[in-house]
Amino acid sequence: MSLHPQALTPDYRSSRLRSPNQKLLSLPAGPGELTGPTFGHGLIGPNDNDLIINYAAPGQAAIGEQLMVHGYLLDENARPVSNALLEFWQANAGGRYRHQKDSYLAPLDPNFGGCGRTITDSNGYYSLRTVRPGPYPWPNGGNDWRPAHIHFSCFGTGWAQRLITQMYFEGDPHIPLCPIVQSTADPKAIEGLTARLDMANTEPMNFRAFRFDVILRGKESTLFENKLEGN
Amino acid sequence: MARSQSASQTAGPYVHIGCTPNFAGLENMYGGHELGAEMFSSDAVGTWMTVTGQIFDGDGMPVTDAMLEFWQTDASGRYAPHGGSEGWGRRAVDAEEARYKLRTILPAGLGCEAPHIKVWIVARGINLGLHTRIYFDGQDNWQDPVLAAIDDPVRKSSLIATRDGDHYTFDIHLQGDYETVFLNV
Ligand SMILES: [Fe+3]
Q1: pLDDT tens figures, B39-67
Q2: Residue B62 structural domain
Q3: Which of A86, A108, A112, A115 to mutate to test the interface with B (most CBs of B within 10 A)?
Q4: Which of A30, A108, B51, B71 has the fewest CB atoms in 10 Å of its CB?
Q5: Is B106 among the domain residues?
Q6: How many helices (H) and strands (E) does chain B have?
Q7: pTM, whole model, 2 decimals?
Q8: What is the pLDDT averaged over residues A136-155?
Q9: CB < 8 Å to B73, chain A
Q10: Contact A26 B184 (CB under 8 A)
């Protein structure tokens, strides 16, 4: 089952001119939808998934609350999606992105770039180390603030599984107020995008762990089923 | 236990930090190499060509924060027959005109599908990545199942790149009179 947002969600103003008016054309899956690019583990450098140090000067570290975010990339039938590329990006601890177009007054952290990547292991497991991103204000016509979030870009085994989403943090009071979060009207969908504090994997005197799984469309979902039935 | 798919969320205006960090200004990130910069290795067999185009919103304004990804067959009609990411590419559009440029080989058709490049589009304001296809003027397009399913000739033409020698042009309109046909993949 998919809980994706509609294309047009007027409370998120940018969607008004960037959502197609016409219905999507439904398409029987072909080989191109069932295959996709793969990226070997050799691509990934030792610090690619460590945002605390992967942009920092030698011996330096990003400023902020140190976290590990970890979990599994699975399909809808809870089968691991292994060897899949995950890419992450986020604001720094003050809520500022390292980007020319971000002019928020919070300072840049010279030791924080804000991007990372990893490839899931044979169990679909991934982890990253980072600092907790700050909430930030954004232009949407009112007094809008994004809840703290990490952007996730996910490849599966097929082109049809390609997904970009965002991870939020349990207990963030901005979650119910944010039109981007609320574009996914279903409370279950929002729950699925919310990472949970994971004390069992929190390292004493070092970092807190948050658990976040990403679920991609499964081989038994509509598209892949249609394919098997020769639809 | 079955679980619901994670809901899509917009890639936002800063997708390039995560996906094309060097373009975004994170100097020398990942050794300065941008994933998907090459569709095929330079010795790939086939007819090399360029595809360029712009992406526009419902007011005809360029969508300057978009990221596009492409996926296509090789010249013998196969998707990455040796594994890896041959036939896959990624582009940030430029910050002024929202223009992209792709150097690639002409894909071959597969089954009844005419030669095409699959395109996936994300940007601020796009809640769920949009899928479309670039077909090519002058190819055997008439029996392709996607093109055959579109009656309106203007809509159909939104999926066919125009040709000038070995250069093709393919613009994307997210909304409006010239809205591109998007696919429920
Ligand atoms: Fe963001």
Answers
A1: 999 999 999 999 999 999 999 999 999 99
A2: 37-173
A3: A115
A4: A108
A5: yes
A6: 3, 10
A7: 0.96
A8: 97
A9: 32
A10: yes
